[in-house]
User: What shape does this take?
Amino acid sequence: MITIAVGYDRRPAARDALILGELRARTTNRGLVVRVEPGLSQEEVDLLVMGSRGHGPLGSVLLGSTATDVIAAAPCPVVVVPRPAAAGGGRPSAPQVDPRPILRCDMGLGYDGQLYILAFDHRGSFIKRFGIEGEPKPEDVKRIADGKHLIFEGLEVALGRGADPSVTGALVDEQFGGPTQVPEQAKARGIRLAMPVEKSGQDEFDFEYGDEFGDHIERYDPDFSKVLVRYNPDGDADMNRRQAQRLRRLSDWLHERDRKFLFELLVPAEESQLEQVDGDSDRYDAELRPELMRRAIAELQDAGVEPDIWKIEGVDTRADCELIAAQCRAGGRDGVVCVVLGRGADNDKVDHWLRQGAPTEGYVGFAIGRSIWGDPLAGFIAGDLSREDAAGQAADNYLRFVEVYESARS
Assistant: This one.
């Protein structure tokens, strides 16, 4: 969070409110979070924005005497906004805030450090692994929640085998992770906790808990709030617009509260795009999807959606990783980072994606789920693996992907 104090050289409160409204609208659209409160102490202010009429002694004719005094005494950077004259030489018009100096500031976005996330926030698809169709009954929920805890036990085994909790992440849902207290246990172990905000199994993003999404985030207090979004820039324009509006709301809510935003972007192919590659999904992934991803990220950024971490589908070349990372960090978003998602692919494919991303500046790890726990969980459900063996296999798979990524970094 960057705290900005706004003042306008002896202006009435109503005029200050006008400036503040203009500032907030222009800067949050580009990811800078503004919090202005009355009575801020000097230590709480990171940037002071003030206006000037240009009155004062000769030495201060350009800035104004008050602005000059503030610059000399301020403990933080100062942006002085001149008040333009009205057309025809009459009374000056209402102040106009130029956002360009502000955009040079650190936006406060991003994440510092490596991050290796075990993702098991699946809900609709997870239920089906237990042979359940439709809404699960209470006894079904207990089995499903136990399966979630089994996966977490695999992460605990990985910690016991040397995984660093400070770079280890657990992405788990409230619905089935909550009953066995997986979120609380992850935090107690020092693991980075991520939890989903989106409603499961929807083509269009919406909040799982509607307008109460914030209450659920604050109840569990995760390190990252995550969304999964299907967004093709050549897809349904109205749906994209609706999604962007909801995502902007979430983005602003999170950053106003110093919370981190994890964004999983999927770009499903449109029929016309598949026709360009003769219906070959592998060619779509290699030839079309990287640029579509870049465009989707740019559109969402322009709409004011500002993730700290982008959870990116694997791409086949390092050049494509560099293309995507550059867009994620465009416009002063220097701290924003990417992690590679696994898509449930086989080890060879995931290994290749990790080796492309790991050496790329702006990539800091992965968020992999089914490729780690899919087979061990299936073996446990079928009765072919003991609980201990299933957790051990999940730990082995997780640690192997960490090793692949770390080896490719060096």
User: Anything to note?
Assistant: The first strand starts at residue 2 and ends at 7. The two ends are 33 Å apart (CA to CA). DSSP finds 15 helices and twelve strands in the chain.
